[in-house]
Design brief:
Helix content: under 10%
Number of helices: 3
Shape: globular
């Protein structure tokens, strides 16, 4: 049976795949119990046979419907998912949000590529983005998403979602090349500029006998819009003696609707990134394969400021005492700061696995992610003099990274009858944080002269898991499982004037999982899932400190943080539409000891703390159908409602009953693609997010300001034309309606993208 992949059907198909890897064959599909099993050449790494919510998108769909410049763009229209991508090539703040987790909770989701961890679980928050740059859009074969912590095969970071990028591995010679360009006319406050960039990629692959290989290389040169808005509260003081009268400031409101003066921008990012990847595979037999992957990514980025202020002769003013409309302000040396980043990361993975589909299958896999070089330099003197050097800081995270080891097996005691399928395994995940901030006499090129502060720490998670998918009756299927985790934190040190003592800690937790499916009728399936997730504190939350801006004192986050514990459940009804699927899911999550950065109103200390209880209840409706009304018209969309609030928080009572930060009450997406023939594809997309907040007490009532999180409604278009068998081109526009919206930083405005591709496959 042939099957056209689509964003909802293929999710279920891929998620339950037992796919053979030895030969590239036509996909075959079997639908039972509200789940679908597919035999495919590139199987997902997500667990098989669990009757819970999956979504997916294929390579062809990405090419035809999405303006994809980065790998995270493939998730743009998934139900309830959002990636906080501030500009093309955003490498340090593009965090994934899910149903009950906002973009401040990066450690509540997991991102993999072919089962290799890309999520940065060294910390939690905007600075700990998944390593999206290790995957290019051109190498994606499929993206699969598992919603919720319902598989025992994943740690508590799966509370939100688990994403797996399934990348290409050829069965014959193939080659691909792409060149693309993009530009946006940006207009905000007194910034009126055009920011553009280009991207090139090439990949080759082949299979000869037992060997197969794939090589991919890409280059990105991108100028993003300014992401920092330099502002001061409206002054009530007279100008200081000798203050410079200036013009150019823009009157505005802050997130609490208080009057401010907007003085300029910072963080206008110019990033140049290169990525390379080699994948090798060898088949020892038709059922045993060894695979090796080497990934390399480097980035040179420069972030610069721009002042709006001009003196009487028109010269820009960046520092000192100034007078604006008769009021006095003081511009500090770092109000308009610049920074430079030089990063080089390396990823390696090795696996050996069997795929007999008989009584036993097994896999051994290991991976290493290494910050070979990770330096960020920041100016400490006033601009524009800082553009030529001067004092500043050098933050060095070289030596940071993580490594994983997985031993897993599958037991089918009933053989091909499949009444029971038991998955089990052992996992070890180790994370190492190395962060030292040096003072530097020359912030651009100089070496560190003295240590300002240093934060180090390690965490390790050793886990045993097992789960049994059991078809106990013709129309019934259940999955029961559990995960036993031993977590330890060690080598935690904080250095200021003198180093602190090393810190050791070890704890053990158990997380049960359960799912049930019932085939109510040939076109109707009902599913229920329940799972516990224990999200351990990260090394950064435990050990990394900061500096009090007022006193200059160095602060350390609490090494005694409790893990975050969540119970998540969902009820789903699915209807097979013949050429599509309609799914309705009710979800609920109760989280105790939630990990959030907040100010303790009693001690007035701001740090990562345990918030006693948060609760989310919601409804998600997802729809997809092919050939709607006319042949070639495909429609998909989703609507999500989430009532997500703080229930108990003794350290900040003002937050009780308020909305969880960055989780909107309503969000939706829609996608319509029309293919009148084999050459043309026309796509229109829309994305919506309702009102949300960035503060626990919801005091940030103005989301359309720097630091705020706004609602938005944006539209996208894409037109793709197949010029010839091997040549294609496309033209697209993201944010067609040119919406000005925010997620702490301003998002891109209307962006035009064009690409030309050449494919041999």
């Amino acid at each position: 049976m042939k099957f056209r992949f689509n964003p909802i059907y293929t999710a279920l198909l891929a998620a339950l795949s037992t796919g053979a890897y030895a030969e590239e064959t036509q996909d075959s599909v079997v639908k039972t119990l509200g789940t679908i099993t597919v035999t495919s050449a590139r199987p997902t790494s997500l667990p098989t046979q669990i009757p819970t919510t999956f979504e997916s998108i294929t390579r062809d769909q990405i090419q035809q419907t999405i303006n994809a410049t980065d790998s995270e763009d493939a998730l743009k229209y998934f139900p309830s998912l959002l990636v906080r991508k501030r500009y093309i090539g955003d490498y340090d703040h593009a965090v994934l949000a899910s149903r009950a987790s906002g973009t401040g909770n990066s450690a509540r989701s997991l991102v993999y590529a072919d089962g290799i961890l890309l999520s940065n679980l060294l910390g939690n928050g905007a600075s700990f983005t998944p390593r999206w740059g290790m995957v290019t859009p051109e190498e994606i074969n499929r993206v699969d998403v598992l919603y919720g912590p319902f598989s025992a095969a994943y740690p508590g970071n799966s509370a939100g979602a688990v994403v797996d990028y399934v990348t290409r591995m050829p069965d014959k010679f193939e080659g691909h090349a792409k060149v693309s360009g993009f530009t946006q006319n940006y207009d905000l406050y007194n910034t009126h500029s055009t920011y553009s960039g280009h991207q090139e990629s090439v990949s080759l692959g082949d299979r000869r006998g037992a060997w197969s290989w794939w090589i991919n290389a890409s280059h990105l040169d991108s100028d993003g819009q300014p992401i920092v808005i330099v502002n001061k509260p409206l002054s009530t003081s007279a100008p200081a003696i000798g203050a410079i009268p200036v013009t150019g400031a823009v009157a505005g409101k802050d997130i609490r609707n208080k009057n401010i003066q907007i003085l300029g921008t910072g963080g206008q990012t110019q990033t140049t990134q290169d990525q390379g990847k080699i994948k090798l595979a060898y088949d020892f037999s038709p059922t045993v394969r060894a695979s090796y992957l080497l990934g390399w990514w480097q980035n040179d980025a420069v972030r610069t400021p721009e002042t709006y202020l001009r003196d009487a002769t028109g010269n820009p003013v960046y520092s000192g005492n100034v007078s604006i409309d008769g009021r006095g302000y003081t511009l500090g040396a770092t109000d308009f700061s610049a920074s430079r980043a030089s990063l080089e990361h390396l990823m390696q993975a090795l696996s050996v696995k069997s795929n007999t589909r008989g009584t036993w299958d097994w896999e051994v896999a290991a991976s290493v992610y290494d910050y070979r070089k990770d330096e960020v330099r920041a100016s400490g003197t006033a601009y524009p003099n800082a553009a030529f050097g001067g004092a500043g800081t050098l933050t060095d995270m070289s030596g940071t990274g993580w490594n994983t080891l997985t031993l897993k097996g599958t037991w089918r005691p009933d053989g091909t009858k499949g009444a029971h399928i038991v998955d089990f395994g052992y996992q070890r995940d180790t994370y190492k944080l190395r962060s030292t901030v040096f003072n530097a006499n020359d912030w651009i090129n100089g070496a560190g002269t003295s240590v300002r502060n240093s934060f180090n720490g390690e965490t390790q998670l050793n886990s045993l898991y097992a789960q049994d998918s059991w078809r106990f009756a013709t129309d019934w299927k259940t999955t029961l499982g559990g995960r036993l985790e031993q977590w330890q934190a060690s080598s935690g040190t904080l250095q200021t004037a003198a180093p602190s003592a090393s810190f050791e800690r070890q704890e053990t937790y158990f997380s049960p999982k359960a799912a049930l499916a019932y085939q109510l009728a040939p076109e109707w399936a009902l599913k229920a899932s329940l799972g516990r997730a224990v999200r351990m504190p990260t090394a950064s939350e435990l050990f990394q400190g900061g500096t009090n801006a007022t006193t200059g004192a160095t602060l350390q986050n609490a090494p005694n943080l409790k893990p975050e514990k969540s119970w998540t459940s969902e009820l789903t009804a699915e209807r097979d539409l013949g050429k599509g699927l309609l799914r309705t899911t009710i979800f609920h999550e109760d989280t105790r000891d939630a990990l959030y950065s907040q100010t303790n109103v009693t001690t007035n200390i701001t740090s990562v703390q345990n918030l006693e209880q948060m609760r989310t209840t919601g409804l998600e409706v997802a729809y997809q159908e092919n050939d709607v009304a006319i042949r070639g018209l495909d429609l998909s969309g989703s609507v999500t409602f989430a009532d997500s609030k703080t229930v108990k928080n003794d350290n900040n009572p003002a937050s009780i009953g308020k909305w969880q930060p960055r989780v909107p009450k309503w969000r939706a997406s829609a996608l319509a693609t029309y293919r009148p023939d084999d050459r043309w594809a026309y796509t229109f997309g829309a994305r919506y997010s309702g009102q949300q907040y960035s503060q626990l007490d919801n005091s940030d009532v103005n989301g359309f300001a720097y630091g705020g999180v706004s609602s938005f409604s944006v539209t996208d278009i894409r037109v793709r034309y197949q010029i010839a068998k091997q040549w294609s081109t496309s033209l697209g526009i993201d944010n067609l309606n040119n919406k000005k919206y925010w997620n702490f930083h301003p998002y891109p405005q209307r962006t035009v993208l064009a690409e030309l591709k050449f494919d041999i496959d």
